Amino acid sequence: MEVPNGAKMSPASHNDGLGKRIASIRRARRMTQANLAHTANVSLSMIRKLEQGVRDPGDSVLEAMAAALGVDPSRLFGDTTRLDGRVHDAIPLLRTVIASCDFPEDGPVRSVHQLRAAVNEAVQRRLNAQYVRLSTTLPDLITELVRGLHETENSARFDIAPLLVATYRAADAVAYKYGYHDLSARLIELMRSASDLSEDPLLTASTAYVRTETFFAAQAYHAGLRAIQLEIDRLPVGRQRQQLGVLGSLHMRAAVIAARAQNPDAAMNHLAEARRLGDLVPEGTYYGTAFGPSSVRIHEVSVAVSLGDRSLRPALDIGDNWTPPPEIPAERRSGYYVELARAQLWAGLKESSFESLKMARRIAPQHTREHQWVQEDTETLLRLYRSSSESLIGFAEWVGVI
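RESULT FIELD:
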């Protein structure tokens, strides 16, 4: 995970003892400052200043250091308040904003150019699984976009509607990952309404990609497969990159949900079509979804794991011979290692499974900690290891299973 070196300078840190705790835990892990800097992907000078108490870390830096040290961020502050508690604290305000979106309050609206820049930043935070930052900024952004949609002329709505869809999707990522499935379903309905305003079939199709979350949450895989197949059939045929990218992402999603439905033939057919389309476009983000050859390979692992422990060989082979490139969004790279860890665990490769879980955490800590499979597999590893290592115990504490 590429972590920005943005932290607050202060003449005296307001987090008393933070630097001392970082240094103490680092020494207990037998790590040098250089080791910690490399593992957390922050600068050595920042580590030194943090331990000296002259800088305060931002959220992403704090998460990265905690992951590198194998502890929950709360241990660095010396209290029991988890960083992700801020996400849960933000949900009531997000619910209020969503409930009142048909009746926005009066207020300023930035230019479309400025709104697009703010939405692009939110999209990047979603792709990089920075849910804490997202949860605190989304309510105001949604309110402003809804206000803009109501106040602008019809022609401007075509500009604002796609921005609102992307912002609802960012909010859905927070709601879905943190278990607020009712809020997630409502956000997806709002995405569908806003995408209809844009009259863009590709935007509508990208919304259908996200809608499959409701089928995953309900384990209604057969219905989900029918729904996404219908959207694939509706999508206009074209040769432009955006069209190919959106269509390819739908086939990737269809492959996974078909595998969850235990329909291997459909899963393999959709996966083959995703591979074909992936060979026609460069790896990139198409209407908010990463797609390309590397994304397809990651979904090959997902399909293998979804089909069950008798179909793990492709996932294990990919894990042995391939590493997702850094340009893939952090959330997807982290998800790859989470699913690879499950394949390795089912194959009896306990050490490899734990290493994959640690890699997932290093890439996207917030995404990894909230993943149900990470919690389940960590509990399994604790049972399988007769004498659990300090590292595994620390990881289990971080995940919250002990």
